Amino acid sequence: MNKSKKFSLPQSLELSENKSSLFRNEFENTVKGYNRLPEDVLLRIFSHLNQKDLNSVQQVCQKWKQGALNPSLWKNLKFQGLHTTESVNMAMRKIWMFEQLEEIYIKDVMEASALLRQIYRCLPNLQYLIIRYCDNLSCQTMKAVLRKCKNLKLLDLKGTSFRDISFYDYLPRLEHLKVLNLSDNASLTTKDMIDISLNCRNLEEFYVSLLKTDTKISS
Fold first, then answer.
1. pLDDT per position as a tens digit, 104-152
2. Domain of 31, in residue numbers
3. Do 115 and 25 sit in the same domain of this protein?
4. 10 Å Cβ neighbour count for 165?
């Protein structure tokens, strides 16, 4: 009769399994500990995270998701390379959710005018607005932004084209505007630059390039 043989694991493997089990238990206890944190403590921790990290921690559990979506944590949003209606709609929902936003960065976004309409509806206290390399924006929408977002300190429109540039006349209404970037804008004339410089009294930084010579001035 064959006797079954007992095989023992090598000691190094046993130690490895014990360490793995110990690490797993410590990790589970740590996660449980974080889940028991009061909401105000969790929010203080999350306040040190950037937009990317806040999106990541939402995947951990429902409590963390709710905490990470607290509007008080979101001071800025960045939207780049949105080329589908679905992605633009998602961006619009975020703007609606986070009414305490101070800064919005938009670059290479399809239907950027739709985002601007959402901005002036939801974020009258916005301070920093960057819209770079977006095509054929509505001038009327831009005028509405300048009328309703009166606390803008920075307006960056580098490389962004508009159907017409009559909204330049609205820039002097921004009493808090300190920084203006109109570089890479082929429609900007020398006259526009002079008018803006003279009328925007509190402007400290003004970036331009690709100036189009105005016929009346050059003559």
1. 999 999 889 999 999 999 999 999 999 999 987 888 999 999 999 999 9
2. 14-72
3. no
4. 16
Cα distances from 26 to residues 22, 42, 54, 63, in angstroms, run: 6, 20, 24, 20
Q: Which two tokens stand for residue 87?
A: 């992605």
| Token pair listed for 29 | 């206890």
Give the number of other CB atoms < 10 A from CB of residue 207. 13
One domain for residues 103 and 58: no
- Distances in whole angstroms, Cα of residue 3 to Cα of each of 6, 10, 113, 117: 9, 22, 81, 81
Copy the structure tokens of residue 45: 């921790």
Residues of the chain with pLDDT under 50: 27-28, 217-219
The domain boundary residue, chosen from 72, 87, 110: 72
Looking at the fold, whether 198 and 167 belong to one and the same domain comes out as: yes
Q: Are residues 171 and 88 in the same domain?
A: yes
> What separation in angstroms does the CA of 133 have from each of 105, 111, 130, 181?
11, 12, 10, 12
